């Protein structure tokens, strides 16, 4: 009996020793993957090690870290929570902060605020982490404010499998009826990395067909081709060629190709200092200025001389295709990241994504108006285009009724379903454009009445609120943009006339529509001059008695 007892102890000891050795091997493999920024493999290794050593808090924390870096927010949250609320929480003070950030990414702002407040009050955060924590509190305050920005006139749709894949799909645009985008779904046979890495390719789609990869000379090499933008004349296309630094990070340069019916020509790298050796130059976007017959190439770079990690820059291209010097967009950039610029020429608006301004979490989409000298203070789009996740790569058509953007929100495809780790998919934003054309006339003659002041009010439960006011001295037309599902009151007046007004509703309108409202203003005072003459001689006749009668009621009978 005693002999069997000793044998049992020896077997248990060997099993524990073997498990410890196995867990150590998985942890070592995970650490190697983390250094190479292969977060998926690191997460797999750490989870296997945790299965072997379920009570190891250090492994628990590393599972959370690798899950966060793999964008598996829900998985990361659960493991950070176990660490932050466990017996060894003091050894991992940052777990409380990351728990809060993972809750922000899932739109749980109330719990996030509680955890980040606890993290700051704990007094163990350094200056950098305290700054990050305060920014997270700013996100919570912004996202839960009573007047969170919103776009009430938009419906969102995730594009189908003719565009979206389980990998990253992004950089949407429409060029001459062709839908252009970039996907990370491609593999390169010559890449012998294990696990294999995916590469970006530019695709185009006509109608509802499946997106087809654009034939680019050199695409057979281990290169990423991404983010295409075409010049005004449709003779050149600018894009990125990027290479892997490790399993996750890439470095990019800007290239240009001659563009014709036969396809794209051999890529030519743009000269320095547009491309900066050792730094990334990416996400090109062209705009055209008719007044100067010149183009402006916006791009993103992490080069020195900027304000943040990634900044928006631009370079002007004259009519002879000569490049100016790169300029940092100081009015827009922050100490964080500003990326994916797109300039809408008709509205003179720059759209971009940023994590440096108050938002809903991750990257939010912003807009800024060009005044001719500078850009205005950026405005957050708000919901539903922005979410608690990353929202970026906004592109909108000339008519401003159709837009596309990329997002890794919950509706996006999962790279690994069981880990809820999702990538960017491309979404369609269909705007309901309701225009009010208010026309003013003189009531008696029905002649166009110019120079009226037309005011638009929204009718709210607490009363009417002035939305816009237009005085047009050269026309009787005033145009306003209305929002769906609202009641409005339009009011027109002019000196010397009695005002006119009308109630307008957009409730029940589900599609874009123009509404015409005619307003008739009566003169408030009419000067009547009466002259008397002799009927036979046509000479002036003086001292006549003139009587004026109001016969309005007689006419109405």
Structure description:
It is a single chain. The chain has 557 residues and is α+β, with helices and mostly antiparallel strands. The chain is 22% helix and 34% strand. The chain contains 8 helices and 31 strands. The strands form 8 sheets. Strands 6, 7, 8, 9 and 10 form a 5-stranded antiparallel β-sheet that branches. Strands 1-23-20-19 form a 4-stranded antiparallel β-sheet, with no helix packed on it. Strands 2-3-4-5 form a 4-stranded antiparallel β-sheet, with no helix packed on it. A hairpin with a 2-residue loop joins strand 2 and strand 3. Helix 1 runs antiparallel to helix 2, helix 2 packs antiparallel against helix 3 and helix 5 packs antiparallel against helix 6. The longest helix has 34 residues. It is elongated. The N terminus is likely disordered.
Architecture blueprint of SSEs:
Blueprint: H1 2-35, H2 39-52, H3 57-69, H4 73-84, H5 94-105, H6 109-121, H7 127-143, E1 154-158, E2 169-175, E3 178-187, E4 198-205, E5 212-213, E6 224-230, E7 236-244, E8 250-260, E9 263-264, E10 268-269, E11 281-289, E12 294-301, E13 311-317, E14 327-328, E15 338-344, E16 349-354, E17 364-369, E18 379-380, E19 391-396, E20 402-407, E21 414-416, E22 421-422, E23 425-431, E24 434-442, E25 453-460, E26 463-471, E27 477-482, E28 487-493, E29 497-498, E30 500-505, E31 513-523, H8 552-556
Parallel strand pairs: 24-31
Antiparallel strand pairs: 1-23, 2-3, 3-4, 4-5, 6-7, 7-8, 8-9, 8-10, 11-12, 12-13, 13-14, 15-16, 16-17, 17-18, 19-20, 20-23, 21-22, 24-27, 25-26, 25-28, 28-30, 29-31
Helix pairs in contact: 1-2, 2-3, 3-4, 4-5, 5-6, 5-7, 6-7
């Amino acid at each position: 009996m005693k002999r069997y007892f000793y044998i049992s102890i020896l077997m248990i000891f060997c099993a524990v020793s073997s498990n410890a050795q196995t867990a150590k091997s998985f942890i070592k493999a995970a650490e190697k993957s983390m250094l190479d920024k292969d977060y998926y493999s690191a997460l797999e290794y750490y989870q296997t090690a945790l299965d072997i050593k379920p009570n190891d808090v250090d492994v628990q924390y590393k599972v959370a870290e690798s899950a966060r870096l793999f964008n598996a927010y829900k998985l990361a949250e659960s493991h950070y929570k176990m660490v932050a609320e466990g017996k060894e929480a003091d050894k991992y003070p940052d777990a409380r902060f990351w728990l809060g950030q993972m809750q922000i990414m899932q739109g749980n702002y109330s719990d996030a605020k509680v955890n980040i407040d606890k993290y700051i009050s704990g007094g163990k955060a350094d200056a950098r982490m305290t700054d990050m924590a305060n920014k997270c509190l700013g996100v919570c305050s912004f996202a839960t404010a009573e007047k969170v920005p919103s776009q009430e006139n938009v419906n969102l749709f995730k594009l189908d499998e003719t565009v979206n894949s389980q990998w990253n799909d992004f950089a949407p645009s429409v060029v001459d009826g062709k839908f252009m985008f970039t996907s990370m779904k491609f593999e390169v046979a010559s890449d012998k990395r294990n696990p294999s890495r995916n590469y970006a390719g530019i695709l185009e789609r006509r109608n509802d067909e499946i997106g087809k990869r654009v034939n680019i000379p050199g695409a057979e090499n281990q290169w990423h081709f991404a983010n295409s933008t075409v010049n005004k004349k449709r003779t050149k296309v600018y894009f990125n060629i990027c290479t892997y630094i490790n399993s996750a990070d890439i470095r990019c340069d800007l290239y240009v190709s001659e563009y014709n019916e036969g396809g794209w020509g051999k890529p030519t790298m743009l000269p320095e200092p547009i491309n900066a050796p050792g730094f990334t130059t990416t996400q090109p976007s062209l705009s055209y200025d008719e007044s100067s017959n010149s183009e402006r190439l916006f791009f993103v770079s992490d080069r020195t001389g900027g304000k943040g990690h990634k900044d928006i820059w631009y370079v002007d291209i004259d009519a002879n295709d000569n490049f100016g010097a790169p300029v940092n967009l100081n009015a827009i950039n922050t100490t964080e990241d500003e990326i994916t610029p797109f300039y809408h020429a008709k509205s003179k608006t720059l759209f971009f994504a940023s994590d440096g301004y108050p938002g809903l979490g991750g990257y939010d989409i912003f807009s800024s108006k060009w005044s001719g000298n500078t850009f205005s203070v950026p405005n957050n789009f708000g919901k539903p285009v922005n979410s608690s996740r990353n929202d970026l790569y906004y592109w909108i058509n000339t008519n401003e009724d159709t837009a596309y953007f990329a997002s890794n929100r919950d509706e996006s495809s999962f790279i690994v379903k069981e880990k809820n780790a999702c990538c960017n998919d491309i979404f369609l934003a269909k705007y309901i454009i309701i225009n009010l054309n208010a026309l003013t006339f003189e009531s008696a003659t029905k002649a166009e009445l110019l120079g009226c002041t037309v005011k638009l009010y929204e009718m709210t439960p607490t009363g009417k609120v002035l939305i816009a006011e237009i005085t047009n001295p050269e026309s009787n037309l005033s145009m306003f943009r209305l929002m769906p599902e609202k009641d409005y009151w339009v009011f027109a007046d002019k000196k010397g006339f009695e005002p006119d007004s009308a109630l307008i509703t957009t409730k029940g309108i589900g599609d874009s529509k123009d509404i015409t409202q005619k307003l008739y203003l009566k003169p408030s005072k009419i000067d009547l001059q009466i002259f008397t003459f002799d009927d036979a001689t046509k000479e002036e006749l003086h001292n006549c008695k003139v009587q004026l009668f109001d016969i309005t009621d007689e006419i109405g009978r």
